[in-house]
Amino acid sequence: MSAFQKETVLSVRHWTDSLFSFTATRDPGFRFQNGQFAMIGLEVGGKPLMRAYSMASANHEEALEFFSIKVQDGPLTSRLQKIREGDIILVGRKATGTLITGNLIPGRRLLLLSTGTGLAPFASLIKDPDVYENCETIVLAHGCRQVSELAYGEHLVEDLRNHEFFGPLIRDKLVYYPTVTREPFRNRGRITDLIASNQLFEDIGQASLDIETDRIMLCGSPAMLEELHAMFAARGFVEGNHSQPGHFVIEKAFVER
Ligand SMILES: Cc1cc2nc3c(=O)[nH]c(=O)nc-3n(C[C@H](O)[C@H](O)[C@H](O)COP(=O)(O)OP(=O)(O)OC[C@H]3O[C@@H](n4cnc5c(N)ncnc54)[C@H](O)[C@@H]3O)c2cc1C
């Protein structure tokens, strides 16, 4: 049995020159936990060309969804950005990753902090009924350079607000906090600075960061992760993993090559 399953692209949506999302069929045997990633890719020259991708769909959904960057000279995404409905993609059979609720000590407020395509695993997690069951509040922060780059997240949250089952949960429990660094917008600045200055909590009208109540998931650029890791560690927060749950967990949104 091949390590990769062939799946059919069902839909593609381009959000900006550098971002797109797509859905694909899902093998019924492909199991994952919300927040995890798998290897996905294309067959190029008779060989699989694979990269890590977070599932943006939840594990109860029939189709798979991914939210992707377009790197113009990127080996995979220079090709992947051209996919159309009916094309075949490869999806690895094994899902993995640290952004799962089991890696966190139970808490009352869950902070999901992301930049760029780091939103993807949280798109999955905010569609998980257990997350709402186990937390009083979920804060989804998404930082981008330009307002247009927020579109996928804005659309996702809007869809959930109008969803028959999730609508009431979202209205009561989910706080969506998009922020932009390079253009005027209602929230401005880097997530790192907005947390360090307490501005984020003032903006959403909630209590400051508190190790007793807050549990955190981080997914973004290597620089964002390094800064926030240092900030949380300095405040006594302990990083969790599969063997030892902690106050926060981290996943890279991409690696610098
Ligand atoms: C755990 C994990 C999960 C990931 N999940 C996603 C995901 O859900 N969506 C997604 O688009 N990518 C994701 N990535 C990145 C992905 O694996 C590829 O790097 C990306 O698809 C580009 O592939 P490429 O072959 O075109 O270029 P690569 O050769 O892989 O990358 C070239 C360069 O592009 C930049 N780059 C790559 N990916 C990104 C990105 N997402 N955002 C900003 N800059 C980037 C980096 O500087 C990198 O050095 C993830 C990576 C990891 C490690």
From TrEMBL:
Identify the InterPro entries for this entry: Cbr1-like_FAD-bd_dom (IPR008333), FAD-bd_FR_type (IPR017927), Flavoprot_Pyr_Nucl_cyt_Rdtase (IPR001709), FNR_bac (IPR033892), FNR_nucleotide-bd (IPR039261), FNR_type-1 (IPR051930), OxRdtase_FAD/NAD-bd (IPR001433), Riboflavin_synthase-like_b-brl (IPR017938)
What protein name is recorded for this chain? ferredoxin--NADP(+) reductase
Q: Name one GO molecular function term.
A: ferredoxin-NADP+ reductase activity
Top-level taxon in the UniProt lineage: Bacteria
One GO biological process term is:
heme catabolic process
Query: EC number(s) for this protein?
Result: 1.18.1.2
Q: Which cofactor does it need?
A: FAD
Q: Which Gene3D superfamilies match?
A: Nucleotide-binding domain of ferredoxin-NADP reductase (FNR) module (3.40.50.80), Translation factors (2.40.30.10)
Q: What class of enzyme is it?
A: oxidoreductase
Family the UniProt entry places it in: Belongs to the ferredoxin--NADP reductase type 1 family.
What are the entry keywords?
A: FAD, Flavoprotein, NADP, Nucleotide-binding, Oxidoreductase
SUPFAM superfamilies given for it? Ferredoxin reductase-like, C-terminal NADP-linked domain, Riboflavin synthase domain-like
CDD domains named among the record's database cross-references: FNR1 (cd06195)
